Structure formats: structure tokens, C-alpha cells
User: Fold this.
Amino acid sequence: MELHHSNAEWKNGSAELLVLSLVEYQTRHGYDISRLIEIRSAGTLRFHAASLYPLLHRLEERGWIQEHWVERPNERRRRYYRLTAEGKMVMARQRQGWEAFVDAIGRVTGVEHA
Amino acid sequence: MQSAGSRVLNMPDWDAKIREQLAPLGLDPSREAEIVEELAQHLDDSYRTLLREGLTPEEARQAALLELERKAPGDLRFPSTGLAALSFPPTSPSQGWALGAGRVVIDLWRDLRFAVRSLKKQPGFTVLAVLTLSLGIGATTVGFGVVENLLFEAYPYKGANRMVLFAFHNLKAPRNERRVGRLSIADFLEYQKNNHVFDGMVGWYSGWIVYTGQGGSEDFRGAYVTPNTFEFLGVPALLGRGITLDDGKPGAPPVFVMNYRLWQERFGGDTAILGKVFILDDQPRTLVGIMPPRFQMYGARIWLPLTLTSSGAMSAGNRITGWLFVLGRLKPKVSMRSAAADLDVIARQLSKVYVEDYPAEFAVVMGQLNDAVLGNFKATLYALMAAVSMLLLIACSNVANLLLARATMRDREMAIRSSIGASPGRLVRQLLVESFVLAGAGLAGGCFLAYWGLKAVVATIPPDPIPESAVIGLNPAVLWLSVGVALVTTLLCGLAPALHALRGDLPGRLAASGRSSADASGKRKLRAGLVVAEVAISLVLLTGAGLMVRTLLSLTRVSLGLDPSTILFAQLSTRNVNYDKVEQQKAFFRQLLERVRAMPAVNSVAVSSSAPLITTDGSSEIQIPGKEHEQKWESHLEFCSEDYFRTVGLKMIRGRALQVSDIDSARQVAVVNQALAKLYFGDDDPVGRRIRFTLLNHEARRITDFEIVGVVSDFKNQGVRNATEPQTFLPYTISTIGTRFVLVNTALDPPEDLRPALRRAIGAVDPGMPMGISGSIGDWLRATSYKAPRFGVVVLGAFAGIGLALAIVGIFSLMAYTVSLQTHEVGIRMALGAERGDILRMVVSNGLRLIVAGVVAGLFLSLILTRFLSSQLWGVSANDSWTYIAVVTISVAAGVAACILPARRATEVDPLIAIRCE
Assistant:
């Protein structure tokens, strides 16, 4: 697997990986996804709604995630997302590539896993 | 118009702004409505978060609206890394796999270190959990190991679990005389040939065999066996060979085989004796084999081959016996019931041919070899198994309790770790590793306890009912079973926090305190239930132990009728041509008694035909002229010398004891015991009356009537547990029937110290007279009658003690936890004027509720389960109220003690701090 990526491509690919991994084990809604990205990255990464929801729509069109509405009293409806079987395979490939990249950097720079 | 969501919490209305952003896209109205709803919800969430962070409503609104700003397609704020120029070599599948495997190992090692650090931070929890697991695993290993070895692995013989003894029951005989356990030689050969249920059948006859060596004579316990025996048992000899079919052929050279213990203890393990000739029962025989340590068939020290002929079972040309005890091995899948039916058919046919060998009405009965040996002790083993299972239950519920408490405390930790990136799989793996660390430490502790516990149990086990061949040791299969149970419990309860972390609302769990959630309340109820169960089960164990203590006390307090601590006994072998006449025995014993009387520290000495409380002599049907009766009257017979009553410590109640002249002239006089006098004479005075013994009427002399000259006090002539039976004391010079013992009443303590001098005295009178089994009656009693209940007391007591300790730990940990939850409440109460005593009472009464529930449940269980212990009890019933009172008192007192410390801590709360605390 060749890893030739432009900066934008890395960002797009990594954004997809981030979203797919967050819905791997648990269904989540859009705000939860964006908030988790921000918290887990300690503020380094931030996903605005204007960027997030189009991405979610794209992933849904590709069949990698699936959505459903949940109604609660005295609240708006919320749309929740979960990973599909195909999305799982895609995520595994993307994750493997990303891990190989991180390992390579680590071997060169001698950076230890925190 | 405000949307539904914004109306409820006075949220800004985002819809217009969102539609404004979407307008250029020209979306389908329904699609647009969905997007508006979703984005509006997102902004609501964002707005709430910003308000919580301290922004004013207007600032929060403005900041939330920034979410709608589109910086660039797929905008993601990412630090610039200059990555575009980099390219990377492709990762092959094997490289990918190796990378993955390496990562797993590194992660596992990291998890292990984290687990150890985490457990070290809570030393109290860790020590308790490991100790509990160790106790549970250790006790279970010991208990199941003993049971498994004795019930299933007691014998090293081929197919031992299928070996059965068979006998007949004479259906017309009294219940305790029904068993006819031997076959004539002809019958044995017929059964061997015609049965369809055994894949092998052997016979034997046991007895004492006199070995004459250079140092004198000795008695060895021997067994004459059919020549197919060693092949049947399937155990190869340690040295030389076993008995073969050729050894049973007529005219075969006389041989014998020796057991390992005799070879080691008597012959020093000398291999040179193999092939040597020994004189056994005045016959030269060649030693052809030494058997391995666990080979103890028939309890014999030597085995000799039989040749089966029509005139009986022969050995070295001598007729040994006309009948044999029989052992068969069932073919696989043949049940005992079907085997009994098959043998019954043969028996019916043979009973028509060999009429005198069969009772008029009979039934074939079969019993497993192990049942016959273990007897009543099997019930003790089952009780031990039940006790072990209960202890394991207590240990597992205690561990579950501790882990559940920890799970509640770690709820928030799991939520935080989940929020910063730990996947559920990661959390589960971390917790599994922690559980393995705990289980591993518990296993190490359990092995240590099992090793020492097994040694202690083996030292306590009564020797009598245990097959000599049984070896009780650490059983790996049982150890792994115990580990498996403890591990499953540890894993299940250790996973509770991870399972909880997989569900629920993240922000809610992050904000919530782990102690106040509804789920924590559920866990508290489960913990309380476990504590109640522990108290109940430990009460059952305590009850069992208490009943065994009462049994032992009853047994040791029984009036035996004599003082066993001062009497030494020694069996002498008079079964040879030198002593088959009364005059020969009289001459020998006169000299011997004179010598022994002259020894220092000897109070008195006597001859007898049994050792009181240890062996019983024969009995005879009796007739009392002038007293008609329909039922059979019987009496045990004791052939003794004139000093018997003084030596044993019995008192004359009426008339006189036997005198020297009675013995010397073999006068036909008798002394009866009180039991006989009461049973057959009632209020009449038996002195001066006549009595006849059917057994003696068969003698060549046709001895008829005896005159009763005295009545002597009773002693427990049928053993400690059984009632005294009628007994008659006759001069030993009347007949050579029966065994001969020397009884010495000595001031030496212990009486065994007199043994060497006694042996010398015997040797001085007749160097060829072997001294057989000997010892002090007191010691023998301790090793036989008292040892089994003592074993029950020690084992059940130990398990009950451990169970109670674990239950106290469970109560203590639950109370401590509950008190910590009630800090706020306690602070308020104290601030409102509650005294320390009030707080103490509040905490203790909470604990007492659980203890009482446990005690009630335990009492109910005990009433049901202790009846299975009935066969082990003596002098006390399974529902003995004093035992139950004592056990309830101990349980309640222990439980209250476990509540005191947490209660005192609760009273030390500073109300001001407690009120602020949440």
C-alpha cells in the first residue's frame, strides 16, 4: 500500500478515520463526535459543524456508516450514526496505514509511545 | 417562531441562520428540514457547553454560530506537518502482522505493570482479595483432594472402581447376623466358570502366619490367595515377581511374596533376601517378590498361593481352608444389580447341589470394595465435600463483594478513560489483566496453603477406615478446578466496571459521582445479598462443626466401665502344635504370669481371649435351665484367668470372682456381667444358677452346665458407641478355643513402656512364642473410636472458622463502604444534635439487619442439611438446640464485632466537613 498523500488528502483521510473509529463500538450523534475529537486531542483537533456534517453525509452515501433518528421528550430529535460492515473494513485498512506511518516516524525519530 | 427545542430551555433560535447557510445548496425541503433539525441540535449542545464554561448567553450564541462558518471543504484544524512530500514504503501483510503482534505484547506488558501499580495503591483490597482467593483455592484443593483420593483413587489395582465383594444374606437370620460372606471351594470354582458378569474373580483367606527366624518367632498378617490374584490386580512387583498360575499347581515349589512396608521395616529394605528361604508356619518357602508401596491387598504383609482341590484350598501340601472370601471385577457397563441377578441364578442351581452351603432362604448381595473398606467414613467424606463447596462459595462471594465495591468506585475512572481514547476492548483487556494478577496471586497462596493443609489433614485422618493403599497428595486436577472457579468469579466481577463503561451517556457519567448513581445502588443491594449468603453458609458450617464437637465430647465422656489408660495388651500366638492342648497353655501362662507379676510397676496381670474395648471374642447361644424362651439367647464368652477382673478394673457386684483353683482344675464355673443378669434373670439372683453354652457342647469333651458364681460390673464390651451386651467369663483352661492375650495393669505411663520387658518375659518362657499386636488400650481407643469424630471436628471446625472469618470480612467491607456513602447524612444528623451513640446504633443496626437475615437463612439451611450428618453423630441429635444457640450467638457476636470499627469511624466524622462533602 503506497502512502503518497498531500496534506489535504491526509487531513481528509484522517478525518474519515477519526469519525469511523468513534462510531466503531458505539452509536453517536454529530455533536458527540465533534466534542470527543476535541477532548481526546486535547484541543489540537477541532471539527466544526459546517465540516463535520457534510463528511457524515459523504460517509453515509458510501455506505460506511448508517444513521437513525432518536426522539426524546422535550428535545429535538437527534440523528445517531453507527459503523457498517463495509465501513469496518475500510476503517481497518485506514488504521493499518496510519499505524504504519506512526511506527515509521517513531523508528526514525526514536519517539516512544506516550 | 421559536423551534420546540429552543422554547423549552430558552435557547436561541438557530433555524433561520442555518437555512441561510443552506440556501445556496438548493436542497429538497424535507432534506433541508432534516439538516436544519440536526444542526440546530448541534448548536444547542454547543451553546449549553459554552454557557457551562462561563460565557454570557450572548457570547455563547456568537461562539456557537461560528460552527456554521465554512472555512474550507472538509476543514479540520490540523497542525501543519509538511507531510505532503513524504512517501512511505508499502507495508507487507507479514510486516503488518508482526507490527500488530509486537504491539499486543507491549500493550500486555504495559497493562500488567499498570495492574500491579493499581493494585498496590489499594493494599487493603488487594490483600483481602488475594487472601480470600488463597483460602478458597487452598481449602478446596485439600478437601476435594482428600475425597477424590479416598473415594476414587484409593487403590492402584486394575479396574479398582469395578471391584465388588459378594455375599449372601440369610433372610431368616437376625438382621445383624445375616451376612454369609464366604464360599466353599467347589462353589467358588462354579461361580468362576459360569458367571457372565465378571472379567475376573479371585478368592482369599486371611490369617496370622508365624515366621520363625534366628531372633525368634513373629506373627505376620498373611493372605492365602488364588493363583490368578496378582494377574487380576495388575500391579507388577517392585522386585522379583508376583504369584503366578504356576505357583498354584499341585506340587509347585512353595513360594511367597512380601509387602513393601514389611520389607523396609523388618528387613531393612535388603534386596539380598529375594530368593531366600523363610520358615513360615513351620514350612520353608522361597521369597519370590517384593510388591510396591501402594500394594496392600487384604491388609496382608505376605501373600501365599493356594492350590484349589476338591478337598479344600491347599498350600505347600497343607489344607488351609475349606472356604474363601471372594472378590470380582465387573465387566465394563455391567451394573451391580444385573450382576447380582446373574449370580443369583447360579446360586439357586448350586443350592440344590451343595445344600449345606446355603441358607434355606437367601439373597445375593454385592458391595463395592471401597464401600466395604470405608464403611461409615464415606459419610464423613461426603460431609467434607459439602463443607469444602460451602467454603468455596463463601470465598467466591467475598471476592465478588470486594470487586463490586471496587467497580463502583471505578465507574468515573472508566468513563474518563473512555472519554480520552480508551476503546472498550482496551478497558476490558486492562481489567482482565488485573483479574489475572489477582487470580495468579491467589493461586500461589492457595498452593502454599494446600500443601500444608494436606499434611495437617493426613495427620488427622483416622487410620482404620482408610485403605492402606490410599495416597493423599496434591491433586493437580482438583487444584485447577478450584482455580477455574475462583478465576471465573474474579473475571466476572472484575469486568463489571468495563461493561458499565460501554453504555450510557458520556457527559452524564463524567459529571456524575460514581457513588450516587442508580447503578451503584443496585450494586449495593447485590453486595448486601452476598453478605447475607455468606453469613448463612458460615452458620451451616459452624453448626456442623458444633455437632461434631458435641459428638466427640459425648464419646470421650462415656463411662467405659474401666480405666483404659493403665492397661497394656499383647496378643500371643497359641495356634500351633505346642499349644493346642489346655495343659500346654496352662503351663506356659503360669510361668509367664509369675514373671510379669514380679516386674516393677506391674499392678496385676491376666490371660484373656480378647483385649477389652478393642477386640471381641466369640459368642455362643446359651440355655438357662428353668427359664423357657422362644427367642435365641446369646452371650459373649471371655476365657480368662483369675486376675482378669482386677487387671481390667471391674467390680464384683454379687458372689465371687474366678479363683486360682477354678483355673487350675478347669472347674465349670462362670461369672456373668450385669447386662446378662438383668436381661435373662431380671430381679432373680443368678448366683448359684446353671448356664449352658451351645459352642462348648460341640467340643470333644461335651462340656455341659456351668455354675454361675458371681456377677461383675459392666464395661463397654462392644465398643464405645454400642450398648453393653451379655457376657460370661469362664476359666481359660476350659478350652483352647479363641485367641490368647496377656493384659497387664501397670503404673507406667505410657503403658507401652512395659512392652520390651514383656517381650523378654515371653521369650524367657518360650523363645518360639511370637508377640503379636500390642499396645495400650487408651492409645488404641484414641486411634480408633475417637479419631473419626476428632477428624470431623478438626476439619469442619477449620472450615467453619475460615468461613466465619471470611463472612466477617464481607460484613466489615460492606459496612465500611456504606458508612463512607453516609458521611453526608451522618454529618447532617450530628449537626442537628445526634449523639455518637445514636450514630453507632444507626450503623450497627444496619449491619444487624443483614446478619439477622443471614442467621435466619442459615438456620433454615442447617435444619435441612445437618440431617445428612446424622450417621456421624453420637449422643447428640442433628437438631440439638444447645448447638444452635451457641452457633447463633457466635455468628451474631462476630457480625456485630465486624460492624463496630466502621461504626466508630462514622462517629468520628466532622459534621462541617461532612456537610460540605458530596
Notes: Chain B touches chain A through 53 residues (CB under 8 Å). The radius of gyration of chain B is 41 Å. The first helix of chain B runs from residue 4 to 9. The mean pLDDT of chain B is 83.
